[in-house]
Each structure stands twice: as C-alpha cells, then as structure tokens.
C-alpha cells in the first residue's frame, strides 16, 4: 500500500491529536521545572539533580543507540511505538502513587524509588521516539512536514499555555508531596488520551534495515559517516547545542538553594517557559516557508548563552521569570530544528538507524549534567556556567558545516 493524500491527512490529524493531549500532559511532568523542583523538595542536591537530568535529557536518548538496531530489523514499527508510550503512561501512574504515599515510605529508599520510575519513564520515551521518527517520516507526505511542525508548535503551544495555568494552580492546592502526586496523576490521564492518536496511525510504507548484531550496527554507522558527511556535523551539533535543554533544572536548583523559591514560584517559572515556547511557535508559524533551519540554530546559540550570563552578572535577585521565558524559546527552537534537520540528513530506509545514531550524539548531553552536578557541589555554580557557555559556543562550527538548505 502506498502513501495516498487521504492516508497522509489521516495520519497528520492523528499525530496532531497525540501532540495536543501530550501538550496538556507535558506541563504536569515538565522535566525543566516540575520534576527537578519535586526532587529538590524531596531532599535532592546538585548531584541528584545531575543524575536526574542525565537520565531524562541525555542518557535516555543515548539508549536509542541500543534500541535502534533491534527496531530497524522490523518493517513496521507501530507496535514498538505503542509499547514505548504505554510504559510511560504506567510509570506516571506509579510515580503519582509513590508520591501520594511518600511520607509513609522510608526516606532512604523513597528518593531512589522515584529515580527508578523516572528511569522507566525516560527509557520508554527513548524507545518510542525511534519508531515515532520513522513513522512520522513515512506517514506524512514531504510537502506537509514543515507545516506539520509549525502547526503542531502553535496548537500545542496554545494548549501548553492553558495547561500551565492549570498546573500552576495544582501545585498550590496541597502541600508537598501530595501536590506532585496530583500533578503526575493528571499527566498520566492526559498521556493516556494522547496515546489514542498513535493507535489510529496507518503505517503503510515498510522500512526495514537488517542489523545482524552490534558489530554489524557499528559497521553501518561507519559506512553512513563516510557516505554522508553531514551526519558527522549533525552529531557534533547535538553533542554541543544539545546541552542547552539541560540547563533549566540547574537554574531551579540555583533558585531554591540561594533564594528559597517555593511551589508557587515553580508554577510561575513553568508559565513563563510556556509563554516563551508559545511565542516562538506563533512567530515561526507566521514565517512558515520564509526561514531556514540554520538561522534558527545560530539564534539559539545566542539565546542559550544569555541565561547563564544574566544569572552570573545579576547583583541581586536574577529575573528568573525572564530567564525561563528565554529557556522556553531555546527549548522550542531546538525541538523544531532537531527533528527537521534529522529528516533532512536522513532517508526513508535508514531513518530508524539515523535516530539511533543521533542517540550516540547525546554522549555529551548525557555526561554534562553528571559533571555539572559534581562541579556545582565542589566549586559552585560559576565554573559550571562557564563550562556550559564554552560548549554551547562550539556548536557554531557544526551549524556552519551543516549548511541546512530547508
């Protein structure tokens, strides 16, 4: 069966359904504000924040290098997509239960139980993302891809704004840890409804790449790197600019340790991050067809560096709401460009392989939070911020070499 216009439109709206309900869920399980704030309130310090950030933002993506060879051997990948998202749904339900009964659990084990559930949640996302990228690339015709990314950003951004207001309210209706239990249960419910969009997908184009064993997979990677010079620069790009989305959890830690921010403040941080994301989506939608990815990439380097500079040179209380607004812009631009550039440098048959290879590009984003947590514990925040800015600035070289044409 071929991809017809009717099937493409059907899949387009199924994926928009998923993105819409996922947008409702995201603010209740936000990895930049809600989860790190919950962990700090549970007694977590810089090292724990580093471990959590490494698991959720870098380490989970790195495991795609392990998952991709297995998934690439199958022509149809919808079943793996459903397995991944269902594991995330169940882990959110488990996390809400753990937090609801948190005070009745031995504190020595409770925080590690939270880490275990978060790990399952993150690995499920990494597992599902390989199939999602493959199915997205072959289930919507090429002319509809950029409109899809822009429309998705606008719709989900608008929903995120409404959801942020609701999440801000939920954070203050009860004390810790019950407020977070409510947050994750609501996230569980919305993610369940989001999964129905995946159940409706029609995967009509088979895409299979035989991978016999890990050694064979490594040979395929070397072959792709030789044949596709842009792939190496793409890996360099996500290894450097990729750490930009791991900064905000440490800003949360900085705010709580130095200025004793509360749950209400976390709600405002979340809200301003969402406003930044929504504003970015609306702007890019208005400019649809008039911008190229490389200009967005250059802009994101500048914005990612602004955040630590403002924190370091603020004489008193830093403008945290403004910083989370900028963080929302950085997050939105990286999400749009990351997916778009990956589709540009890959093809239909090797897209799952490339998604797995991109997991290898998350080596530095996986290590950075761990190293950052240790540096903060030993030397303070300033050396950490300096290291962050140096790595981000290195991405300028890889962006130049990628020379994205779309």
Overview of this protein structure:
This protein has 406 residues and is mainly alpha-helical. It has one domain (5-402): Up-down Bundle (Growth Hormone, Chain: A), CATH 1.20.1250.20. Helix content is 79%, strand content 0%. The longest helix has 33 residues, at 107-139. 50% of the residues are buried.
List keywords for this structure.
single chain, 406 residues, mainly alpha, Growth Hormone, Chain: A, 17 helices, globular
How would you briefly describe this protein structure?
The protein is mostly helical. It is globular. It contains 17 helices and no strands.
Fraction of residues in helix? over 70%
Give the CATH level 1 class. Answer: Mainly Alpha
Mean pLDDT: 83
Instruction: Report the major sheet.
Output: none
CATH architectural category: Up-down Bundle
Low-confidence region ranges = none
Number of helices, counting only DSSP H or I runs of 4 residues or more: 17
Query: What count of domains describes the coordinates?
Result: 1
- What is the overall silhouette? globular
Task: Give the arrangement of secondary structure elements.
Layout: H1 5-26, H2 34-41, H3 46-62, H4 64-72, H5 78-100, H6 107-139, H7 145-172, H8 178-199, H9 214-227, H10 229-240, H11 248-259, H12 263-286, H13 293-313, H14 320-345, H15 351-360, H16 363-379, H17 381-402
Helix pairs in contact: 1-7, 1-8, 2-11, 3-6, 3-15, 3-16, 4-6, 4-15, 5-6, 5-8, 6-15, 7-8, 7-12, 9-10, 10-14, 10-17, 12-14, 13-14, 13-17, 16-17
């Amino acid at each position: 069966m071929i991809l017809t216009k009717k099937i493409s439109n059907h899949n387009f709206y199924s994926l928009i359904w998923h993105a819409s309900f996922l947008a409702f869920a995201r603010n209740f399980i936000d990895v930049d504000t809600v989860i790190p704030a919950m962990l700090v309130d549970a007694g977590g310090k810089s090292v724990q924040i580093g471990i959590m950030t490494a698991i959720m933002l870098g380490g989970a993506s790195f495991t795609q290098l392990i998952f991709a060879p297995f998934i690439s051997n199958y022509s149809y990948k919808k079943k793996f997509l459903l397995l991944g998202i269902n594991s995330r749904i169940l882990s959110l339900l488990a996390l809400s239960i753990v937090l609801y009964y948190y005070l009745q659990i031995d504190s020595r084990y409770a925080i590690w139980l939270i880490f275990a559930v978060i790990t399952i949640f993150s690995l499920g996302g990494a597992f599902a993302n390989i199939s999602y990228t493959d199915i997205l690339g072959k289930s919507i015709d090429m002319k509809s891809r950029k409109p899809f990314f822009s429309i998705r950003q606008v719709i989900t951004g608008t929903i995120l704004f409404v959801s942020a207001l609701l999440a801000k309210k939920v954070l203050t209706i009860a004390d810790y840890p019950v407020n977070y239990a409510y947050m994750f249960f609501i996230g569980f419910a919305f993610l369940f409804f989001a999964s129905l969009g995946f159940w409706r997908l029609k995967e009509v184009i088979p895409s299979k790449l035989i991978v016999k064993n890990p050694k064979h997979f490594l040979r395929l990677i070397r072959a792709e790197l030789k044949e596709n010079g842009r792939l190496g620069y793409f890996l360099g790009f996500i290894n450097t600019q990729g750490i930009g989305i791991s900064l905000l959890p440490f800003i949360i830690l900085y705010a709580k340790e130095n200025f004793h921010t509360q749950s209400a403040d976390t709600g405002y941080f979340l809200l301003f991050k969402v406003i930044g994301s929504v504003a970015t989506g609306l702007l890019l939608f208005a400019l649809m067809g008039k911008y190229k990815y490389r200009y967005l990439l250059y802009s994101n380097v500048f914005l990612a560096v602004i955040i630590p500079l403002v924190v370091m040179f603020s004489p008193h209380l830093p403008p945290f709401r403004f910083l989370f607004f900028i963080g929302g812009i950085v997050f939105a631009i990286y999400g749009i460009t990351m997916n778009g550039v990956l589709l540009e440098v890959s093809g239909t048959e090797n897209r799952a392989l490339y998604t797995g290879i991109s997991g290898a590009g998350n080596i530095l984003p996986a290590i950075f939070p761990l190293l950052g947590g240790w540096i903060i514990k030993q030397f303070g925040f300033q050396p950490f911020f300096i290291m962050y800015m140096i790595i981000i600035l290195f991405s300028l070289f890889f962006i130049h070499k990628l020379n994205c044409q779309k």
